[in-house]
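User: Last request for today: this protein with 5,10-Methenyltetrahydrofolate, please.
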Amino acid sequence: MTVILDGKALANKMQANLANEVADWKSKGYRIPKLVVILIGEDSASKVYVKNKEKSAQKIGFHSVVRRLDESVSEAELLDIIAEYNQDETVDGILVQLPLPKHIDEENVLLAIDPKKDVDGFHPLNVGKLFVGDPDMHPCTPFGIITLLKEHNIELVGKKVVIIGRSNIVGKPLMHMMLNEDATVTITHSKTKNLKEETLTADVLVAAIGQAEFITSDYVKDGAVVIDVGMNRNSDGKLVGDVDFADVLPKVSAITPVPGGVGPMTITMLMEQTMYQGRKHCGEESHDNK
Ligand SMILES: Nc1nc(=O)c2c([nH]1)NC[C@@H]1CN(c3ccc(C(=O)N[C@@H](CCC(=O)O)C(=O)O)cc3)C=[N+]21
Ligand SMILES: [Mg+2]
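Assistant: Here's the final one, the structure of the complex with 5,10-Methenyltetrahydrofolate:
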């Protein structure tokens, strides 16, 4: 029997726990955590993701601000707006939705966010802390993957993890998180030779490729755990992952669905990290910090 790693179910459970904690703070008169999401332009996928983040934040009871900026906003204007939220003591988390318009330099933006409010874990300081094995804020997608695996008691110590994809938001940070769990990690990517030879060695296979249903059962070892980070539309307009779910399912011990797997966990870790910052600043000593 294959275990379905139900990210939606765990997301609901974790977000309900956060909602209880926030309700408890409210009853004590503490300041409530605030998450600011900055959305630039009219990209339709970004709008959907930001909407989902806003819905989760509101459901938990956080103060949720979505700052919508015109596509034409200058980098200097954006940096000023970030500086304003950095200084605002009622703001616990700041997220600038990626991708950015071409005329804005991503590195400048990520460097501008106070690392303490960097709920995405993308600031180079947080990236470096993860790299040396002393993480503070984590990138949410890989953090969600690790959290989902732990919830299902999937052992990582000494296991062979193969990641397909070397992005700064998934592949590379996940490599470090897996190393911190004492896994043996291989990263593969578009220039990897004999990809299938690599993936067939995986006890845990993570697909972050960006190609609909690319991973079929012939890429997967019997009994492996398969994590699908993909979000693609197939020819019928249906949301599918990078894994051919129906083909792979009978061969593996556990697998994440799309939708309802890694995506909801990403949002949940964003909420967890907003709460993590809030816990430092909203409690007994600082509840008057309105
Ligand atoms: N600064 C920044 N931080 C991000 O975390 C960030 C970003 N920029 N840019 C874009 C990506 C993408 N991302 C997703 C989050 C949730 C779902 C999600 O909830 N997916 C649902 C389905 C959603 C649907 O129906 O389209 C699911 O998998 O079940 C998907 C994708 C966060 N991102
Ligand atoms: Mg994130």
